[in-house]
Design a protein that fits this description.
626 residues, alpha+beta, Rossmann fold, BirA Bifunctional Protein, domain 2, YbaK protein, nine-stranded mixed beta sheet, six-stranded mixed beta sheet, 15 helices, RNA-binding
RNA sequence: CGGGAUGUAGCGCAGUUUGGUAGCGCACUUCGUUCGGGACGAAGGGGCCGCAGGUUCAAAUCCUGUCAUCCCGACCA
């Protein structure tokens, strides 16, 4: 028998099929490995750190083109299209309308919303450029500006509301540090949806609905994902939840109660701090504390507990309006600052965004032309006069205290003299309690707010989706209004809902793999079945393999036929690596017309006839699909 | 941007300390044997040693600069 080195007859003969999650534009393309441009790597690429990144590279799914910029190769594109398809169907079911918005945005819109500054300047994440006419343009990292402008132009009456629009397309973000392949890339595929409402209740209804839609999407993709309370960050707005895929390599720290009633990103998480160890009230004095600059040094030298000390953080906040505001933050010694909470508090208090928050260093003082400060001995009452003569800083401190610090009645703190601390101090002595807020990081072991018998536990997660109640921030800024029942103009209430499509694909690998390779959930696998002909020199095996391949295609199963003239071992390794959920081996039982059916994830193997294989595969694929 | 590291064949690496004009494994090509878990033998092809300067009779190797990539921190789907 003549062996074809490479098959040139593609499978154009597949039937037209309407299938769950396969819209008409997405035909089933069964394929032969000999035609697939399958390039797998035996060695782990040196620049890939986490399993999912390594496996996607090794399986030939993705190739890096630049830092944070990846090419999706044919197998990956099939996965992405399957995910896209699930997302589209669920979004459509939820009554959303699909659009495609431009990626190139005029700066004007972003200036109107007030985000041009913060998104392009300094640590800004928006790629931006000037065209030949010198106009400023940005590459869309998100689309609130564009969609709100459009809605404002097109929606004039409450009768046209509510409406939800979405799109699936490439987004651009100039990440400071791209990481982990598709997990944090600079060019990535995202589904973003925006809803418009006449009032807040209606927004809340859609938000809740979208929550359910998201749960269904992740479930349909075969992912174990869960929602957590989140900070709404630079996008702004009120309520917000993130959808997390748990994974030890995840970049987010999640705190949850074991009763399942509370789960939040650490950025947002609230808790009840442990009780402080109370000091016996004594007469306040100033004590010598040479070389006792840190909490631990002070504790061991003075026999204190961290919760008996007030520590002070000196920060400089660079604001969107260009101001540089020095801050004094007082925390209980055993607590850490949550910078997200502080940023939000500042934004609210000052009415302007925070571009950057950093600790004040001796070098900063130098460049401001200020004399040295007694770092390590500074107290909450550090004088504003110390800022006198600074070049660009505001001339007085903004002072905040975390709740736990404010509650202490008797404590140790810096005396504002090098090598000296105040012992048994109190807030009255320091001129009163500063503005008190929740500024501390919740951490594992803290008691929960909803039930003090519950404690928080931590785990790591990959954020694959995020839903926000934006409110009227953008519609007001961009003057996007409709006329209400009473004939009055009102700004839209808005929601926004994102899913990182390409990130989700990699998160699926992170959650579903073993030593041998990927174990795709069947709904998003590039192929549902791979048929491995163990020995291409055996005409009987080839004949049977071709037959079962044809049969699978004819019932609408997305099959891959490994017809390469490789040794069986090589084909098994590749099949395991690329992670097709079902494997049919045409091999030593071919002489009796039997196959092996192998489940990739469980490694369970059964020997069966053609009819049995077709029946089993069909039922597995079609019955578990939605 | 700060801290750390690395750039040598498609991939993984050695060679750099002590300068003498490039090597190993995998992959690739051809032939033969093999054929159910990344086969074996033989013969091949492939390198501006990241880039640019400099030192030297001579630079992958030493010096200076520069670029890129990765890891740890500040941003986010």
């Amino acid at each position: 028998m003549v062996l074809l080195k490479r098959c040139h007859s593609f499978d154009y003969d597949h039937p037209f099929l309407t299938r769950c999650y396969l819209p008409t534009s997405f035909a089933i393309w069964s394929m032969r490995v000999s035609c697939l441009m399958l390039v797998t790597l035996r060695d782990v690429p040196a620049d890939a750190e986490i399993a999912s990144h390594q496996l996607l590279l090794r399986g030939g799914y993705i190739r890096r083109v630049a830092s944070g910029v990846y090419a999706y190769m044919p197998l990956m594109w099939k996965v992405l299209k399957k995910i896209t398809s699930i997302v589209e169907q669920e979004m459509d079911k939820a009554g959303s309308l699909q659009t495609l918005l431009p990626q190139l945005h005029p700066a004007e819109m972003w200036k109107k919303s007030g985000r041009w500054q913060s998104y392009t300047q300094g640590e800004g994440i928006m790629f931006h450029l000037k065209d030949r006419q010198g106009r400023d343009l940005g590459l869309g990292p998100t689309h609130e500006e564009v969609i709100t402008t459009l809605a404002g132009e097109l929606i004039h009456s409450y009768k046209q509301l509510p409406i939800t629009l979405y799109q699936i397309q490439t987004k651009f973000r100039d990440e400071i540090r791209p990481r982990f392949g598709l997990m944090r890339s600079r060019e990535f595929i995202m589904k973003d949806a925006y809803s418009f409402h006449t009032n807040e209740e209606d927004l809340k209804r859609t938000y809740k609905n979208m929550n359910a839609t998201y749960n269904q999407i992740f479930k349909s993709c075969g992912l174990k994902a869960f929602a957590v309370d989140a900070d709404s960050g630079a996008i702004g707005g009120a309520a917000s939840q993130e959808f997390m895929v748990s994974a030890s390599s995840g970049e987010d720290l999640i705190l949850s109660s074991s009763d399942g009633k509370y789960s939040a990103n650490q950025e947002k998480a609230v808790s009840k701090a442990s009780e402080p160890v109370l000091l016996k009230n004594k007469k306040p004095t100033t004590i010598d504390t040479p070389n006792q600059k840190s909490i631990s040094e002070l504790c061991s030298a003075q026999g204190l507990k961290p919760s008996q000390i007030i520590k002070v953080l000196l920060l400089i906040a660079i604001l969107e309006n260009g101001q540089e505001q020095p801050l004094i933050i007082s925390l209980r010694g055993d607590q850490d600052l949550n910078e997200v909470k502080l940023t939000n508090a500042l934004t609210q208090k000052l009415g302007t965004g925070v571009l950057k928050l950093s600790q004040i260093s001796p070098e900063n003082l130098n460049s401001q032309g200020l004399a040295a400060w007694p770092f390590g001995s500074i107290g909450p009452d550090f004088q504003d006069s110390m800022l006198k003569g600074s070049k660009s800083w505001a001339k007085s401190f903004l002072r905040f205290a975390d709740q736990t610090a404010a509650e202490l009645n008797c404590f140790f703190c810096g005396a504002n003299l090098l090598g000296k601390h105040k012992a048994f101090a109190n807030w009255a002595l320091l001129g009163g309690v500063p503005t008190t807020l929740d500024l501390r990081k919740a951490k594992s072991g803290d008691r929960c707010i909803h039930d003090q018998n519950e404690t928080l536990e931590e785990k790591r997660g990959i954020e694959v989706g995020h839903i926000f109640q934006l409110g009227r921030k953008y519609s007001e800024a961009l003057k996007a209004r409709f006329t209400n029942e009473n004939g009055a103009e009102e700004s839209f209430w808005m929601g926004c809902y994102g899913i990182g499509i390409s990130r989700l694909a990699q998160a699926a690998v992170e959650q579903n793999h073993d030593e041998a390779g990927i174990c795709w959930p069947i709904s998003i696998a590039p192929y549902q079945v791979i048929i491995v002909i163990a020995n291409m020199q055996d005409p009987r095996q080839v004949e049977l393999g071709e037959e079962v391949y044809k049969n699978l295609k004819s019932v609408g199963i997305d099959a891959l036929l490994d017809d390469r003239a490789e040794r069986a071992g090589v084909k098994f390794k590749d099949a395991d690596l690329i992670g097709v959920p079902w494997r049919i081996v045409v091999g030593r039982d071919a002489s009796n017309g039997k196959f092996e059916l192998v489940n990739r994830a469980s490694k369970e193997t059964q020997v069966m006839s053609t009819e049995e294989v077709l029946k089993k595969i069909s039922s597995e694929i079609f019955e578990n699909r939605c």
